[in-house]
């Protein structure tokens, strides 16, 4: 049985266990192409590593800064695959990439400070800035135009303290060229800005354009770059709540540690989640690569199908396993469109609402591809049928 | 084999896995009676429940407010054993009791607000208040005198917003009478104060004095009581990072939820930790009760041994599995005493430092009892020998 064949999906388990707008939260019969969480079980090596850790029955306190073997494995992985040049002593495991973003914003922003947030982008950027008392300033991006930061300085004021980079970009699925990232670094250096650099999608590269980490452009340039990575997207560990933050400067790292609460027991990552993340990096790369291959096929298939559907504009993402569909030609708002599809053809999608992605998301919807080909095909069939019903005014 | 016999301790596992000043962090040969974390493996039912959850390989997102079956089990347990009258919809699982304290302080304190913190008490009270921008005001407590809150109003100013209750008290090991808690509620109601009510030690009752939860004194009186409970002390799950906060008022609960970050993926508890906590409550009470019986025996034995040691004043704790030893008669400071014992007789204890317990802790040290009788005996032998060396000026 192939790892990512439809027959490897356990729908009973998903209906019991998959929350966050997914199988366990939708009405019976609805296909949820919603939250970016795989429909496939995780690599067996991850389950094996957790089981091994459990075998002696001890669930004691772990080291405050995380298990050394995990910090080392993360640093080695970031260096060997993405040339990030980070050292293990500057890697801090945290309980989700999302928490990492909040820690970063909390560590560097003072109330009233402005942070530039792309629009659209995942709502965690805006929320992390606002929770720290900061003010998000939207920088418009669009799939129609290369993101090149040429006009970035127009958005910088004396109060600007941080730029929030989502690379690869969720929901647009874009990766940035080296030249673009150099430009960003130059602008941020000129204005003394921190960079919150979210790379949670950096393993899922679907197109020809390679992923370039901003950290690979040199340590000195990245003294104010604060990065986030996680294990939910590439390894299916969303429920375990484990990710990490890392940087290139010791003093900055100490600020992150202080802000994280790990020096008390208020912060930290479950021992089993750390064990799972370690197994993911050291034993389950083959799984993540096969998963990416599967998703590349899913994305190509979806683009082909979607481009034949009137009312929808779709494109092949460079990365991620989500697609960003422009549905403005249907005449419906994002919310109306997703409500219609959910009600009429039992297909759940994520509306491009201001709350989820910012004001620039209106008119778009997000579709997740992390399922078997059969489910995806059925989902696209339903979308097609829904569009037909819409045209007929049903 | 008895559950809590010395032969059931796996020292190899502890040396690999038990951090936070315990076996994996001390020099070889040192006995760590330090952090309050059991030397025994957890109940096999907990391992079984985690293994069951793992069997299908899905580690998907869990519900934002926590697994409903866990919230229900916690509410039922708090009601049936402690008469707390809390309902499942007002229980929020959080990733450690410590995090719960930070969430509570963050939800109700504004910068500059004062919160009354007992002295001595676990440092998490002070730290949670300060992280929220609040100002801790110390209320002195002592093992020599019943804590009765008769002079509590002397510590209340127009800026006071919260009283922090640790019941049972860490490190003093005291429980409060119903009359005392009524008095506290009256004073707090009169001045409109929130109560942060930490009950993480409420399962470990060693003496004759019963544990009374402040929540058992009636819902109306407890509209501003915000409680914390956890699974580290009674079930040995410190490494899994799972606890809960709960209250008696819907509006107040919503404030806690907002402050917790669980509505985004920034907050929450690992699925496996939730499964473990559920198994602890529903299947491992027998284990926790047997553990408490074992600890009661350890405490009685330790009191007997310690009362024969010149230079040390010890007493039987009402609750917890820690003992608070007054070592002022040795002429050493807390830190000097613990340094001496660690160096001379390879016994690690927790110094009563201002950082760990507040200024009123000076002259005392904390000793953990959560081990087998053999280790405890060896620890007390070493303490005795250390005191003898001290007297001889070695």
Could you please describe the fold and organization of this structure?
The structure is a homodimer of 394-residue chains. By secondary structure, chain A is an alpha/beta fold. Chain A has 2 domains: 6-43 and 285-389, Aspartate Aminotransferase, domain 1 (Alpha-Beta Complex); 51-283, Type I PLP-dependent aspartate aminotransferase-like (Major domain) (Aspartate Aminotransferase, domain 2). Chain A contains 13 helices and 12 strands. Chain A has helices at 11-17, 44-54, 68-82, 97-108, 123-131, 178-190, 232-235, 250-260, 271-283, 285-307, 334-345, 354-357, 373-391, and strands at 31-32, 91-94, 114-119, 135-140, 160-166, 194-198, 225-230, 243-246, 322-326, 347-348, 350-351, 364-368. In chain A, the strands form 3 sheets. Chain A has a 7-stranded mixed beta sheet with strand order 2-8-7-6-5-3-4, with helices on both faces. In chain A, strand 3 (114-119), helix 5 and strand 4 (135-140) form a beta-alpha-beta unit. In chain A, helix 4 packs across helix 8. The first copy, chain A, is globular, with a radius of gyration of 21 Å. The two termini of chain A are 41 Å apart. The interface between A and B is large, with 60 and 60 residues.
């Amino acid at each position: 049985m192939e790892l990512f064949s439809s027959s490897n999906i356990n729908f009973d388990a998903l209906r019991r266990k998959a929350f966050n707008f997914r199988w366990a939260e939708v009405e019976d019969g609805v296909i949820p192409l919603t939250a970016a969480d795989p429909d496939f079980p995780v690599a067996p090596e991850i389950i094996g590593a957790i089981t091994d850790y459990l075998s002696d029955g001890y669930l004691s306190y772990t080291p405050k800064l995380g298990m050394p073997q995990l910090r080392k494995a993360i640093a080695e992985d970031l260096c060997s695959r993405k040339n990030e040049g980070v050292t293990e002593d500057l890697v801090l495991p945290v309980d989700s990439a999302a928490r990492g973003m909040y820690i970063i914003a909390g560590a560097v922003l003072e109330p009233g400070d402005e942070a530039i947030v792309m629009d659209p982008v995942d709502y965690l950027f805006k929320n992390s800035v606002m929770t720290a008392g900061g003010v998000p300033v939207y920088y418009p991006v669009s799939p129609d135009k290369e993101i090149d930061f040429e006009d970035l300085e127009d958005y910088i004021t004396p109060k600007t303290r941080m730029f929030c980079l989502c690379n690869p970009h969720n929901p647009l699925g874009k990766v940035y060229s080296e030249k673009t990232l150099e430009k960003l670094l130059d602008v941020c250096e000129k204005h003394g800005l921190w960079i919150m650099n979210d790379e949670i999608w950096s393993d899922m590269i679907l197109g020809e354009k390679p992923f370039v980490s901003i950290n690979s452009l040199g340590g000195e340039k990245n003294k104010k770059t604060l990065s986030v990575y996680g294990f939910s997207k590439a390894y299916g560990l969303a429920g375990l709540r484990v990710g990490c933050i890392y940087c290139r400067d010791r003093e900055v790292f100490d600020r992150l540690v202080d802000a994280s609460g790990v020096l008390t027991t208020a912060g930290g990552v479950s021992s089993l989640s750390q064990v799972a993340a370690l197994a993911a990096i050291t034993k389950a790369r083959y799984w993540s690569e096969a998963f990416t291959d599967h998703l590349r096929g899913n994305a190509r298939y979806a683009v082909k199908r979607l481009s034949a559907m009137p009312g929808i504009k779709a494109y092949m993402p460079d990365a991620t396993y989500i697609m960003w569909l422009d549905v403005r030609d249907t005449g419906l708002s994002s919310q109306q469109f997703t409500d219609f599809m959910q009600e009429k053809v039992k297909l759940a999608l994520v509306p491009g609402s201001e709350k989820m992605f910012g004001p620039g998301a209106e008119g778009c919807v997000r579709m997740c591809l992390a399922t078997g080909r059969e489910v995806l095909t059925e989902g696209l069939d339903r979308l097609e049928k829904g569009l037909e019903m819409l045209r007929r005014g049903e």
